[in-house]
C-alpha cells in the first residue's frame, strides 16, 4: 500500500482521529522497578567472585597455611557439592538405564550434557557402558587432597601463575595465548600455564581433570573400589592414583601424603570454620 492510498483513506474517514495510546507512566515505572529487582536478585544469588588473597603478606608460615586453607576450603566443598548433586541425579536415572527403559526427553538431554562435561558421548555405542564410565567419573575429590595439591602446586597461593592466572594446580594448555608462558620453557615447547577467570574455575577444572584425564584412571579405580566396598574415598588412598601428575611420580605421591598428614589439624580447622565439615563428609560418603 502506497502513501497516496493511505492519505485518501484518512480523508474519507469522518470519525475523530485518535492519537496513539501512550504507555501509562505507572506501567513504565513498574517495568523499570521490576528490572531493578530482577538484576538485584541475580546479583544476590550469583556467587561472589573469590579474589585470591596476597599470601605473601603472612610472614609466619602457620598463619599463611591457615589463611590458604581457610580461603580455599569453602570453594572446594562447594564444587564437590555440585559434582555430588550430579552424581545423585545420575544414580536416580541409572536403574532405568539398566532396565532398558527409554528415558524422557529432559532426562536424555541431561544425560547428554552430563556426558559431554565428562568427555563422553551419550548414549555412545552402549548405554550401559557409558553409564558405567559416568558412575566412575562423576564423583567428588576429597577436600584434603585438593587443598594439599593446590598448596603444593601454587606455593601456598604465592606462585606467579596463581597470582596472575588463578592457577592453583599447575594446569597446562596448548593453544597460543591460552595462558602464561613459563619463563623457563624449553625453546621447542609450546605449552603455557593455563589462566583462569577465577579461583573457582581453577578448582572446577582440577576436579574435572582428575575425573576425565586418562592419566588419572588409577585414581578413579581406587575411588570406585572404595565406593563399592562401602567406604568413603580418602585423600591418602586416592593420592596413590596421582602417579602421573608429576614427572617425580612416586616421590610426588609420597610428598602429597606427607603434606596431608602434617596439616591434618589445619585442614580440619578450615573445614570447621566455614561450616564445611558436614558438607564434605556428605560428599565423601555419597553412594
From TrEMBL:
Give every Mannosyl-glycoprotein endo-beta-N-acetylglucosamidase-like domain span: 140-263
- Record has Membrane as a keyword: yes
Span-the-membrane segments of this chain are 26-45
Any idea which GO molecular function terms this record carries? amidase activity
Residues of the region (Disordered) are 1-22
The record's listing under Gene3D superfamilies reads:
1.10.530.10
What does the record list as coiled-coil region(s)? none
Put simply, this protein is called Bax protein
| Native source species | Wenzhouxiangella sediminis
Amino acid at each position: 500500500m502506497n502513501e497516496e492510498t493511505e492519505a485518501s483513506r484518512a480523508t474519507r474517514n469522518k470519525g475523530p482521529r485518535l492519537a496513539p495510546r501512550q504507555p501509562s507512566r505507572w506501567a513504565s515505572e513498574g517495568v523499570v522497578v521490576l528490572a531493578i529487582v530482577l538484576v538485584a536478585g541475580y546479583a544476590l544469588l550469583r556467587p561472589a567472585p573469590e579474589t585470591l588473597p596476597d599470601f605473601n603478606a603472612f610472614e609466619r608460615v602457620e598463619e599463611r597455611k591457615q589463611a590458604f586453607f581457610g580461603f580455599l576450603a569453602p570453594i572446594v566443598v562447594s564444587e564437590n557439592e555440585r559434582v555430588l548433586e550430579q552424581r545423585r541425579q545420575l544414580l536416580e536415572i541409572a536403574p532405568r538405564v539398566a532396565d532398558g527403559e527409554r528415558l524422557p526427553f529432559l532426562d536424555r538431554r541431561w544425560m547428554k550434557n552430563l556426558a559431554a562435561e565428562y568427555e563422553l558421548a551419550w548414549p555412545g555405542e552402549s548405554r550401559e557402558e557409558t553409564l558405567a564410565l559416568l558412575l566412575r567419573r562423576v564423583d567428588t575429590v576429597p577436600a584434603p587432597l585438593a587443598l594439599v595439591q593446590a598448596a603444593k602446586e601454587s606455593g601456598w597461593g604465592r606462585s606467579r601463575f596463581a597470582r596472575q592466572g588463578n592457577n592453583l594446580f599447575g594446569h597446562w594448555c596448548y593453544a597460543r595465548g591460552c595462558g602464561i608462558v613459563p619463563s623457563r620453557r624449553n625453546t621447542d615447547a609450546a605449552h603455557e600455564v593455563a589462566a583462569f577467570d577465577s579461583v573457582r574455575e581453577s578448582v572446577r577444572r582440577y576436579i574435572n581433570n582428575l575425573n576425565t584425564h586418562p592419566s588419572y584412571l588409577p585414581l578413579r579405580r581406587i575411588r570406585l573400589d572404595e565406593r563399592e566396598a562401602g567406604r568413603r574415598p580418602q585423600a591418602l588412598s586416592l593420592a596413590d592414583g596421582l602417579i602421573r601428575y608429576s614427572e617425580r611420580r612416586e616421590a610426588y605421591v609420597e610428598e602429597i601424603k606427607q603434606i596431608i598428614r602434617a596439616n591434618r589439624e589445619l585442614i580440619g580447622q578450615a573445614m570447621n570454620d566455614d561450616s564445611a565439615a558436614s558438607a564434605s563428609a556428605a560428599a565423601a560418603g555419597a553412594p
